[in-house]
Amino acid sequence: MRSLPLPLALTARLAPVAVLATAGWALSAPDTTAPADEPRAAASGPAEPSASAPATQAATRTYTAAPDPCASLAKKTIGSLVPGAKTAGKEIASTDSEVRRTCSWNALKGYDYRWLDVSFEVTESDEAASKTYEERVADKSGGGAVDGVGDAGYSVVNLTTEDKQQTREGTVVIRAANALVVITYNGSDFESKKAPSTDVVNKGAIKAAKEAVAALTDGQA
Question: Which domain holds residue 145?
Answer without folding.
Answer: 57-220
